[in-house]
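UPF0047-domain-containing protein
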Amino acid sequence: MLSAPTTTSSLTTFIILSIFTLAFFPGAFHFVLWAPYNLIFPSPQEPGRPTSVLCESPNYCIAPTRMTWFQKQFTLPSKSRGSYLITDTIVRELPEIKNYKVGILHLFIQHTSCALSLNENWDEDVRADMSDALDRIVPEDKRGGMYRHDAEGSDDMPAHIKSALVGASITIPISNGRLATGTWQGIWYLEFRAAKHSRRVVATIQGEKL
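Tokens:
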């Protein structure tokens, strides 16, 4: 005896399709679920504010960002071996700092025998002592034999080592158009070669403008 064919009810079909929709299109399911709520309680818009705001249910909105990037390259005054305070030079070369309410200034020196640092900005003896201390830590070998690399003179390899120890970059916060350094902090340029050299710096600013 033949059995009657089994049919799937419309409700079962709807449930199966709903499960597949939820599994493969969760965003669409979320939109449909919150549609009645969004119609009854629309997201308020502040007068005078941008309307291009990304909003998600329930009433979670993200304002458009005003984060910007700026980059500039400049050359430092040529100096021979020593430690130099260059805060005023940096501020003069980067008047764009005044345009930022909050942000970050990154300074990168494009060379391997000098360095940038943050340190004492008042007593110049600190800079002299720093240069002397680095000379003691990494002495110059005029007799030869201590370093393999001496292609540009006896001060060549010591300069590379000092650069690696101190570093080629620094990062400083910006607050209300000014560098947010401490009272006694200044930006140092440390030159490790005996002769004067021209050094390039890349400045990058990321932040929110005033």
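The radius of gyration is 31 Å.
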